[in-house]
Amino acid sequence: MPPLNLALLRQRLNTTALWYRSACPKPTDPARDTRSALAPAGHLLMLTTDDAGTEDLYRPTPFERLAIVDDLAFQREKALEATGMIAPTKTLMLAGGRILECLLDRSDHDGLAQYHSRGLFDAFDIPGHDTWLMLTRTEAGDTLLAWIPPPFLHDADAAIWASPSQCLRWINEKSLTS
């Protein structure tokens, strides 16, 4: 397992927190949608149906998933720069939020995390793409790191509790300060 690129994680975390503070609907917004005008170029998991009506779970390759997450992070950074905002680079800006690990290949796509988080996660146990930081490879397979903003921590806790596959867990932020 390659070591985590802490400099890249720090940059993406700061950019994501700044994006949330400047562009995302607030939790008091009736729509309560954490997704923004930015959209990923593809799906990290997707349910497909063939001509016979048989459902199948499509799992992109690790390279495709990495490209999807990296492209979204690039779009977010460029959108912020276009408005004149640049995230700080020397600090780890959790801004009251927490970093979540989403073990993509362990999801049982039962929709429990989606229900209990009130829509913060989708049916595949993946948080809204505005929270995505980076994709890493671990012993558990492809792992999405996401920053969960403070107003949504309770919802993320509910999703972690509800997920029988244990594909969601908090990262110990102290391990990221090296």
Explain this structure.
The chain is α+β, with helices and mostly antiparallel strands. The protein has one domain (6-171). The chain is 30% helix and 18% strand. The protein has 4 helices and 6 strands. The chain has a 4-stranded antiparallel beta sheet. A two-stranded antiparallel ribbon has the order 1-2. The two termini are 18 Å apart. Mean pLDDT is 85; it is low at 25-35.
Summarize the structure.
The protein has 178 residues and is of the alpha+beta class.
Task: Present the secondary structure layout.
Layout: H1 6-23, E1 46-49, E2 55-58, H2 62-82, E3 98-103, H3 112-116, E4 132-138, E5 141-148, H4 153-162, E6 168-170
Antiparallel strand pairs: 1-2, 3-5, 3-6, 4-5
Helix pairs in contact: 1-2
Attribute tags:
178 residues, alpha+beta, 4-stranded antiparallel beta sheet
What is the strand tally? 6
What does the largest sheet look like? 4 strands, antiparallel
Q: What is the oligomeric state here?
A: single chain
The secondary-structure element order is HEEHEHEEHE
Estimated share of beta-strand residues: 15-25%
The end-to-end span amounts to 18 Å
As a percent range, the share of helical residues equals 25-40%
SS field, number of helical segments: 4
What is the number of independent domains?
A: 1
